[in-house]
Amino acid sequence: MESESLEEYSVNQISSSNEPARDLNTSLDTDECSYQYPDLFTGKTLLELCNSSWSRSQKAQDDIQPYLRGCKWSPDGTCCLSVVNNDGMHVTELPRDLYSGCPTPNRTIDILESAVHMKEAGLVYDFCWYPGMNSGIPETCCWLTTIQNSPIQMWDAFDGSLRCTYRGFNAVDEMEPALSLTFSQEGSRIIAGYKKVIRTFDVDRPGRDFAEHKVTSPASCFATNSNLLAVGSWNTTINLYNVNEMGTYKSIGKMHGHAGGVTHMKFTPDGIRLVSGARKDHRFLVWDIRYYRRPLNVLTRAINTNQRIYFDISPCGKYLVTGGTDGVLKVWDVDRVDWKNSLDPSEDDGDNVTYKFPLHNDCCNSVSVHPLRPILATGSGQYHFKDPLVALEDESIQLNGTLDNINNGTLDNINNGTDISDNDLRYSREAENSVVFWWIGDILQDNT
Fold this sequence. Notes:
31 strands; 4 helices; single chain; SWT21/TCAB1_mRNA_Telomere; mainly beta; globular; WD repeat; 35% strand; Methylamine Dehydrogenase, Chain H; WD40_rpt; repeat; 5-stranded mixed sheet
């Protein structure tokens, strides 16, 4: 990783122009952000800037598939952290020429190499950056992961070394892996969700010292805003808590509305609304936490998998961005579609999305809006099952030793276009496992 933060570079390189530099320590509100944060999706087109992809080794088994499972920009915007199934964690840096200015349409697409690659021994359940991360202060450059059969681990973002672990033990003194985790907003505590409890660790005290709060259902994901904590669960509910400085949880209420287990949530920058998504649930719910009894708005996206599909809200609070299993990027612009408030009952129940961008040929499972620049990171990939017809064909070939013995019309049906891989990406042999950076702002026209 580069030692100089994007914020410091922006102050040195951008302040001389009319474009204002943004301070990460300044609180984000809608009025202030309207002139500090650049306008997004102004050209209604996306320009590909960089990409990085992964492919399976020829000697690997069919169940070893290196598909992307999430990507998140660092809080200072200098790098992007990605989780790749069966290939651990990858840190890719933003090219220096994108720290300022606008790219031209004929800009060469960069093929990114991982600045840090850290192998994992098991399935990564969840991960998050330290909220005060700044590349100019090396001790703040770290992230957390919770891994199958492992404690919570803190990793150094410069060399990928393990800094420390936070271990949660149950009543019979068995170490449990956390299902989800997040930092408190100020970064002094780690909040980890387990099957029956929420445990709070002090960042300065690694080990097995923690406070514990019992819950009735597994905590699958978190969203924090000031002293508010939203806890999503696999039983389709969302619980709201007020957390004081001592780490004590006071229940505010429970929210119902999803048809599947809640997998991802995020507060809007004003802290009043909460957006949530669930697995195998096409509904995308917007809540007003002041009146949490029912959803404020219901949006739609294509979700046909149990996989966690990340979405993001721009720092200015104007744009809601999400992917889906159909590979399409959806964008809601609050100035054109009032996604923050309830829909007009007189309107049709159709899709009210502002923009649609068919970016990937595979599942678009994660999106992350850059904290400073008009750049969007998207990740693609999912687990691809073997086509049952092809599996039956292969099994018959192995049993009979020849294709002639199974020529009962199955192959004719496949050749005639009835192969379900054309309709379901999960059975497709064309896997796209990549993370891509897109320019979503104004594009500088090249007159040469």
